Amino acid sequence: MRKPFLFLCLFCWCFCVSAQRYQQLVKLGLEQLQADSLLQAEATFREALDVDPLIKSNALLYQYIGNIQERRGEFQKALDSYKIGLTISSTTISLLLCRAALYLRLDNQERSMADYTEVLNLEPNQTEALFYRAYLYTQHRDYKRARADYDRLVKLEPMNEKARLGLAILNDKDRRPREAMEQLDALAQLFPSHASIYLVRGGMYLSRKQYELAQSDIEHAIELEPENPDCYVSRSQLYKALKKKNLAKADAQKAIRLGADPSFLTP
To answer: Looking at residue 110, what is its pLDDT?
Structure first.
């Protein structure tokens, strides 16, 4: 009768050693990740996967590996890692959010929308998913659904600047220009030092051919954030509308030097 008992004790001891080793590797991998030692962190996480390939928490390790691959620009590998993680645990919200964000980055809006919707099916008040799904609905001109998501988000977080800014942009697109401007005026009062608000409002003034008001807002945004390439993109567009070609070109070149996408500045 002693042999089965001894075997059970040996099994329990091995299991404890394995679990301890797994936890040590995960902790080390996270420390390496925080120190930006990406290659070492990935190797450590993969070693942890080898120690215990069946544990459900491996879903998070695949998330970390995917994050590392994404930072290296290995987008397809990152998507594959997220997929494996979701195969292990299909309801891990952080994994779904990572994949949704990467799909959005790769302009695969349909799959990004599907992942954000799945997150909201699991957690209806998940604020990141609400914001980006509202953005995607706006891009698809599904203003009714976009408004529902933005309204829900603003109710959850009344001081969420990005949500309120998104709602103002939506109202402008949805032929509610007065409401949009009122919302932007309110945001400028609440967040007077945030350049993004003045850039959006300046853009709306520009679309209405209210050039002096547009220039005032854009110039103020530049004062607030002189290294923000979006400021010079906006002023370049203003100068184009005013037929000041040399000034428009100079601002376009400066925006590119600061990191703007050149495709946004084509004639």
So the answer is: 97
pTM of the model: 0.85
Residue ranges, the chain, pLDDT below 70: 1-18, 264-267
Question: Residue 158: is it exposed, middle or buried by C-beta count within 10 angstroms (0-12/13-18/19+)?
Answer: exposed
C-alpha separations of 218 from 2, 187, 249, 256 in Å: 83, 16, 16, 17
Residue 128 pLDDT: 98
Half-sphere exposure of 70 toward its Cβ, with a 13 Å CA cutoff? Answer: 20
Residues 6 or more apart whose Cβ sits within 8 Å of residue 261: none
Of 33, 31, 25, which is closest to residue 69 (Cα–Cα)?
Answer: 33
Say what the pLDDT of residue 55 is: 84
